[in-house]
Amino acid sequence: MPTVDESPRGRKRLALVGHCILNQNARAPGIAVHRGVIAPLLQMLQGAGYELLQLPCPETAFTGVSRWWFVYEQYDSVNYRRHCAKIARAVSKLVKPYSEEGYDIVLLGLGMSPSCGVRMRQTNKQWRGRPFDVGDVASVEAGSGVWIQELERTLKREGIGYRILDVPPVLIYPPDRVPASAIYPQSEEAAWVELKRFLEA
Q1: Tens of pLDDT along 105-127?
Q2: Distances (CA, A) of 134 to 47, 125, 129, 192
Q3: Alpha helices of 65-162 — where are they, by DSSP H?
Q4: Nearest Cα to 60, choosing from 92, 34, 98, 87?
Q5: Degrees, nearest 5: CA angle 132-33-183
Q6: What is the mean pLDDT of residues 45-74?
Q7: Which of 7, 13, 24, 161 could serve as 50's disulfide partner, Cβ 3.0–4.6 Å?
Q8: Residue 54 — pLDDT band, cuts 50, 70, 90?
């Protein structure tokens, strides 16, 4: 049996996990496809010997739980960035001691999220002004979300090394919201394989 501070391979590992990986109830209404925790991912993290640090949800703290679906353009504001930067500074103080102890650190975001996306984020420049029907599905574009941008900036400034990936959309969105994109695996099986390889590297 490994000790509490070692993985099965004898390496100390810490996973910084996007808040809704462990609490799907924090997602904007109508998006979650899991009840509470994403159980298979939690089991995968535990099996690979990771200690877990659940990141705060900047969206819930900023706009509450009864919020509209937002896109990148709506969160890309001075005040929201300040909000994210403040949280990032607090997170970095928690992570720094692990980095200094030689932990392998990974950061897991949420694919397509305007805040927590790593490879792609949702975008729609028409979502503004008086409410009107613009359809349920936003477009996606390459790029990370606002929270991930601010968190990465802070971690790098503090000299904290890490690897980063976001959970593929096929595992965390209803099927009609999953984009056809070569950037992400398109099947659940391929998505789990990608995550397993990343976590066990």
Answers
A1: 999 999 999 999 999 998 987 77
A2: 43, 10, 12, 33
A3: 72-75, 78-100, 146-157
A4: 87
A5: 80
A6: 90
A7: 13
A8: very high
Q: Which two tokens stand for residue 101?
A: 């102890």
Structure tokens at 107: 């950061």
Q: For residue 168, which of 145, 196, 200, 194 has the smallest C-alpha distance?
A: 194
Closest Cα partner for 147 from 109, 199, 95?
Answer: 109
Asked if residues 49 and 3 have their Cβ atoms less than 8 Å apart, the reply is no
Nearest to 80 by CA among 152, 154, 165, 145: 145
Residue 163 CA neighbour count, 13 Å, CB half: 13
Nearest to 173, CA basis, from 66, 20, 17: 20
Inter-residue contact 192 to 40 (CB < 8 Å): yes
In the structure encoding, which two tokens stand for residue 112, read together?
């397509």
Domain parsing of the chain, residue ranges: 13-200
Structure tokens at 111: 């694919």
Retrieve residue 121's tokens. 């984020």
**What one-letter code names the amino acid at 57?**
C
pLDDT score, position 135: 58
